[in-house]
Design a protein that fits this description.
About 40% of the residues lie in helices and about 15% in strands. By secondary structure, it is α/β, with parallel strands linked by helices. It has a single domain, classed as NAD(P)-binding Rossmann-like Domain (Rossmann fold), CATH 3.40.50. β5 (about 140-150), α6 and β6 form a beta-alpha-beta unit. α3 packs parallel to α5 and α5 runs parallel beside α6 (about 160-180). The radius of gyration is 18 Å and the shape is globular. Bound molecules: ligand 0WD. The site of ligand 0WD has 26 residues, from α1 and β5.
Length: about 270
């Protein structure tokens, strides 16, 4: 019997096999979960690139796959209606979504446009709130929601720019949502992952430098792996974490605790 035997849930945010949501999904699947998935709607329905990429990974076991742009309330309503129809109740929702227009993401923050800010905040932060308000209506007792964040939401990480502002808001939303849903018996948590090469992170400036930082300055002197994020994400969504809510669990080889460089770290790198 797996940790997720008999558990059902929704996964938002698999773009391809590098996606963090895919790393977590593989773990959930190995532990017996049943899942429905969403993908970004394809701009040209005759060439369904996003749908194909998702289906290639999950078709063998997905209960359903459907398009969902989190900026669209009708899409969100349709996903939760489908989840209710297929599963009745669900046990977990994985939110692994973020976006900012490239010209605003590349910084500096002082030059971010009003429209870029609104869009980035809506997709990267408000989307969690919009999922939570729908999820609570079909969450089973003990149900929970997990989102993905990054240390750039707590401290300045050069290159992270506008996304850091969005992650701050997201992390605060996790705490307030944990409070709002707590009396209903539901949990809301965040997992703060170290840098992993994905479609989204390739848009973040200085990504390679970020990885070197973890290799040289984290307590474990290495970065983390997608599988480690997968295991910890599954843990937070499982009953093994039934007393944990409003948490931001760092899966970053301890990088977040460092205030200065270790003596063995290279001075030039
Ligand atoms: O180093 C990293 N990769 C880290 C990522 C470190 C710490 C945290 N994270 C976070 C990201 O900020 C994000 O919240 O993890 C989450 C997942 O990111 P990812 O796995 O790195 O990136 P990716 O595989 O690109 O998945 C994010 C997906 C989108 O992918 P693309 O690349 O197509 O934008 O978010 C989805 C989409 O599938 N997405 C949306 N889904 C619905 N509606 C929307 C939208 N409007 N916009 C983006």
């Amino acid at each position: 019997m797996g940790l997720f035997t008999g558990k059902k849930g929704l996964v938002f945010g698999i773009a391809n096999d590098y996606s963090i949501a895919w790393a977590i999904t593989q773990q959930l699947r190995a532990e017996g979960a049943e899942m429905g998935f969403t993908h970004l709607p394809d701009k040209e329905p005759s060439r369904p690139r996003m749908e194909r990429r998702l289906r290639k990974l999950v078709d063998d076991f997905a209960t359903f796959c459907m398009p969902c742009d989190v900026q669209n309330d009708e899409h969100l309503d349709a996903v939760f209606a489908k989840a209710k129809e297929e599963f009745g109740e669900i046990d977990f929702v994985l939110h692994s979504i973020a976006y900012a227009p490239m010209e605003d993401l590349k910084g500096p923050v002082r030059d971010v446009s009003r429209d870029g800010f609104k869009m980035a905040m809506e997709i990267s932060c408000y989307s969690l709130i919009s999922l939570a308000s729908r999820a609570r209506k079909i969450l089973a007792p003990g149900g929970n929601i997990l989102t993905l964040t990054y240390l750039g939401g707590e401290q300045v990480m050069p290159g992270y720019n506008l996304m850091g502002v969005c992650k701050s808001a997201l992390e605060q939303a996790v705490e307030y949502l944990a409070y709002d849903l707590g009396t209903e018996g539901f949990r809301v948590n965040a997992l703060s992952a170290g840098p992993l090469k994905t479609l989204s992170s390739s848009a973040v400036g200085e990504f390679d430098l970020m990885v070197k930082l973890y290799d040289n300055f984290s307590p474990m002197r290495r970065n983390i792996t997608p599988a480690e994020v997968g295991k910890s994400g599954a843990f937070l969504m499982s009953d093994a974490a039934s007393g944990i809510t409003g948490e931001n669990l760092h899966v970053d080889a301890g990088y977040h605790v460092m205030g200065g460089p270790p003596p063995d770290a290279p001075l030039k790198w």
